[in-house]
Amino acid sequence: MKRLLFSVLLGISLLALSPVVPVVGEQTAYAEKRFNLEKSLKRLKANPRYRGKILGVRAVRTSRGKLMEVRILKSNDKIILVYIDPDTGGVVSDSRK
């Protein structure tokens, strides 16, 4: 029982001494990417061509690199896919014909 208690206390003390800087840096980078996504989604909603309900967003890898795929439900009950460049926030392509 003493060994278990000692190992738990040792583990907690090691966690308390671990550096926090890398985690904070990752969170900052994530927040910047998230801000760009929110900004590009607002711009996407403002475009009459892409008006509708956004069903979801996911990251996909393509031959052009990493893109964000946005699924939009149009008023005519059709779903279109819009691909956004996460760095620029601009529309790369869509599934409309």
What does this structure look like?
With 97 residues, the chain is of the alpha+beta class. The protein has one domain. 43% of the residues lie in helices and 30% in strands. The protein has helices spanning 2-17, 21-46, and strands spanning 53-62, 65-73, 79-84, 91-94. The longest helix has 26 residues, at 21-46.
Radius of gyration: 22 Å
Mean pLDDT: 77
What would you call the structural class? alpha+beta
Give the overall shape, derived from the CA principal axes: elongated
The domain count comes to 1
Strand content: 25-35%
Give the helix/strand layout.
Elements: H1 2-17, H2 21-46, E1 53-62, E2 65-73, E3 79-84, E4 91-94
Antiparallel strand pairs: 1-2, 2-3, 3-4
Which structural traits does this protein have?
97 residues; alpha+beta; 2 helices; 30% strand
Quick gist of this model?
The protein is an alpha+beta fold and 97 residues long.
